[in-house]
Amino acid sequence: MNNSSKTVLITGAGRRFGLALAHAMLDEGYQVIAHYNTSKDGVAELESRGAASVQANLADLAQVHQLIDSVQQHVSQLDLLVNNASCFFENARIDASDDNLTAVLNVHTAAPYLLINRLHKQLAAANGNVINITDIYVDSPSTDYVAYCAAKAGLASLTLSFAKKLAPAVRVNAIQPGPILFLPEHDSAHRQKVLAETPLNIEGGLEPMIATVRFLRDNPFITGESIKVDGGRALTI
């Protein structure tokens, strides 16, 4: 597939799913705008392939506005916006600092709101798509990550609201990942416990997420939808 005239903005593109998705979009011929905060190594890989990069701390809303201004200056239309950036903070980290609470709320809810709201003209010009990466904990929140779950639930609500507000020019959907890719700090006992609670009993990997982005992007009759990509784990939590 050649999409050389199409542009995608991916937040949190410097690592993990965001990085893999950016590479996949480059493979398809997209012009990729790769947002990152601190993960420069991954973004350097993307730049070597022709991606544009923009740095911003999404916890700081002034920097979010600067990010949006930069995108608006360089593109007249935006085919795809993927709100992927995340900060996965447990209760103890939130309770230790109000700045961490602000970060969780801004990165997952306020920044996506601003990005969608201020870039809607560029999205509409392309009959574009927004895909928000939420979490299976939106529907069954974890007591260990109270603020994180609340912020992701806010993003899920934004998905529904903007799907109604921006139709028919822009479609807005969400993906709820489960155990796609364990973090380095997850020990063997944690991994075994999570997989035991997952009906398909495997770590999903990143390709199922990328495939779901493509499905939502390419199906013209879906908006306001949220798809779980979790091996069935939402059934057990």
TrEMBL record:
A Pfam family hit: adh_short_C2
Keyword set includes ATP-binding: no
InterPro entries: NAD(P)-bd_dom_sf, Sc_DH/Rdtase_CS, SDR_fam
Gene3D superfamilies given in the database record: NAD(P)-binding Rossmann-like Domain
Superkingdom classification of source: Bacteria
A GO molecular function held by the record: oxidoreductase activity
Keyword Ubl conjugation included in the entry's annotation: no
Keywords: Oxidoreductase
Family membership noted in the UniProt record: Belongs to the short-chain dehydrogenases/reductases (SDR) family.
Name listed for the protein in its UniProt record: SDR family oxidoreductase
